[in-house]
Amino acid sequence: MRQPIVSVMGHVDHGKTTLLDYIRGSVVARGEAGLITQHIGASEVPLEYIMNICAPLLEKMRLDIKIPGLLFIDTPGHEAFTTLRKRGGAIADIAVLVVDINEGMQPQTIESVTLLKELKTPFLVAVTKIDKVPGWIPSKGCQFSVSWEGQPRSVRDDFETKFYRIVGQLAQQGIESDRYDRVQDFTKKVCMVPVSALTGEGIADLLMMLSGLAQKYLTERLYVTEGEGKGTVLEVKDFRGLGTTIDVILYDGEIMTGDWLVIGIKDILVTRIRAILKPNPMKEMRVEKVFIPVKSAFAAAGIKIAAPGLDKVIAGSPLRASRSESRVEAIKEEIREEVSEVEIATERDGVLLKADTLGGLEALIKTLGGLGLAIRRADIGELTRQDVMDIRNVPKPLVFAFNVRVPDDIAEIASDNKVKIFSSDIIYRLIEEYQQWEKDAAKRKEDDLLASVSRPARFRILPGYVFRQSKPAIVGVEVMKGVIRTGRKVLKGGKILGEIRELQASGENISEAKAGEKVAVSIEGGVVGRNVSEGDELDVFVPEEDLKVLSRLRHRLRGDELELLDSRTARAEQGRR
Fold it and tell me: How far apart are CA 111 and CA 96, in angstroms?
């Protein structure tokens, strides 16, 4: 039985990295550095350490832990679920959803919950930063129950208010939850463990719950298949002396130097393993330069592999290793079947999707499907000129680029061809940008419509402000209601008097004037003293077709405009009777 693979997810700055750093650091602090093993993109916490730190709790809960430890994936949460995928779901067996007690659920937290639900991955919630609750008295490294007993009543009340706010927010996402020591049935409620990665409070509780839940509910999943190794490519990197290498999370079986290696998504690569490397213990994996060559590796583990032809491999690709060359063709078919499981119902007039990995593409397809967006094509890799040319003539030319580079020259070509690109390394941000764009696009369309029609308005000619009597008449006016614009016809007593040619304020030409403003207006067709006089009130003429447009856009009209519009509609209705 291998150790469960644990993914740590949540909103940025809620304490994911600090939590892992505390667990790793506490092992070193206890002088047990030899027990913890660092992997590529993962940290293994052995059973001995769990038994040591959790002993009082395990005795209290009468738990006998038999799993060999926990393997925490040290990657951003979304990568763990959009890159580290296998047939049937996520590589992670169980997840920890990190939520800051003082900030509650945030957009990335909700995105994480959505991914967890989609992939049916069991999880628990680490309610972090409890030491930041005002007045909290820290008890370094203690179980949560010990810390809780030492808190004043006012602090407990504040804690409970914030804690149950998160319970309510999870309920809104369809998740029933409660504090882990209050949960009776773990199959029906998600347990929440209060922790501080700064003081270590609740860390023992978290490790105990992870171990206990994994052992009770995931045992069958944790048995490793003998022989053929199965994994997922985490990253493709150049490594001095070895050329292009791949960082792999191995989740099943065994892998050895000399094995046949089958990797791929669209183009399947068959090669042979030249070298397997592991990092030195307790080193930061993403910057480590020194690795130890090994002959073999067993699941679950993070390893670096060197082999010919790896430069064409894409992160997120499924990987299989076999001793026997005769198994290669069958394995290729297995991989093709796995990759083909990403189902896309394509439509000619849909949008274009680009992602860096197969899992990322799958997550994007599901998310956009929830918005009702049709998909023209979904592909892996950075955006190209051909992609832009392909999408430019559809009714709504949109590109969603998830975690892929959009070169400047391609962005410029897209802009020239009126192709809108939404680009981010977080799916919820892509969706937010799209929704805002849709909202803005609808507003822009309404703005254009409002600018094209005559809007209801009334203005009064101010006594003593006749600047010219005719051809055209130029007078000073006060706008009483609505908005007056150039090019609009005006009425007096229900009959067309003339047309507004120009508007001026402080000697400058303007295009419109609103209620309450005093401006000079030139009226073509108006003759002061004959068909119009000082003190007269004039209305802007609104044609029947413009009235229909304004009725649809009532939500965009001012209150004084609505008053005039309703008055005009009422008079028209009365006239028809």
Answer: 14
What DSSP element (H or E) covers 569? helix 559-576
Where is average pLDDT lowest: 105-109, 249-253, 360-364? 360-364
Give the rounded percent of residues in the chain with a pLDDT score beyond 90: 50
Q: How many residues does the chain have?
A: 577
Whether 111 and 205 share a structural domain: yes
Give the three-class secondary structure for 222. helix
Domain boundary among the residues 322, 339, 356 is at 339
- Per residue in 257-279, pLDDT (tens digit) is 999 999 987 779 999 999 999 87
Torsion angle (degrees, nearest 10) of CA 399, 405, 407, 410: -20
Residue 185: strand, helix, or coil: coil
Q: In three state form, how does the secondary structure of 413-481 look?
A: HHHHCCCEEEEECCHHHHHHHHHHHHHHHHHHHHHHHHHHCCCCEEEEEEEEEEEECCCCEEEEEEEEE
Same domain, 177 and 267: no
- Residue 408 and residue 358 in one domain: yes
Indicate if 440 and 522 belong to the same structural domain: no
Residue 450 falls inside a structural domain:
no
Cis peptide before 281 (omega within 30 of 0): no
Q: Please say if the pLDDT value at position 42 is more than 50.
A: yes
Domain of 286, in residue numbers: 229-339
Q: What is the largest CA-CA distance in the chain?
A: 105
Share of the chain above pLDDT 70, in %: 92
Quick check: 206 and 181 in contact, CB under 8 A? no
> Do 189 and 109 reside in the same domain of the chain?
yes
Whether 78 sits among the annotated catalytic residues: the reply is: yes
- Residue that is written with structure tokens 């070509």 in the block: 413
Whether residue 452 is contained in a domain is answered as: no
Domain contains 520: yes
Domain count, the chain: 4
pTM for this entry? 0.69
Element (H, E) at 168: helix 153-172
CATH of the domain at 40: 3.40.50.300
Q: Are 483 and 561 in contact (CB under 8 A)?
A: yes
Q: Is residue 566 part of a domain?
A: yes
Among residues 11, 14, 78, 555, the one annotated as catalytic is 78
